[in-house]
Amino acid sequence: KTAPVQWHSSKAFSLPKKSISSVEEPYDAQRTVHTLDPIGKAFYRHLLQEGKPPTSTMSEYGYLKGRRREAAIKQQLVVADRLAANHISSDTNSHDMKNAFASPGFLVMDQVLEPVFRPKDWHFVQQRYKHATTRVPAIGGDIYYSMGSGSLPGDRIAAEEFRIVFQKKVVEPWIQQDVEGIFAVTCPVTKKSVNIGKSAYADDLCD
What we know:
single chain; alpha+beta; four-stranded mixed beta sheet; globular
């Protein structure tokens, strides 16, 4: 069984994206957005809801309802302040991933996402990103190309797919580097041990 080809074909357009690195040309960057068939978007959203997406973790902010990215930054400021109050040296690092949704490789997506969806739906999900094509307007005619990695920004499940892959392959290994559990505390609500030394907001990682 295959999903309609039209569901995976998008028309791309660009939006001006303000670049903080440029003062003279504040809109020298472009953000590509993909328009996809609304029925296809609803269908794949349903498949995700019928699956078993992992619950959010303590370190995730920005792309989850009710959890703003400012909270991730505030968390790091509080941790640094507590360390300074106890005369402990610390260093805060922030990493940004460009073209986040398109960055995960298909093999990684297969590995991480297959357990999330029902077995009978998995072949449809693979079609969604492996068969994705897009059309870009250009001088002399449109350009058609296929995607070689990641999900299309504009798809209803793209952000959730990226969140799951990013958490599994980037954030979790990053947290595991704290082998001594220096930043492990007990959550007063869930009573679970959580690591407050790392926080992710959208496609940024801070520790």
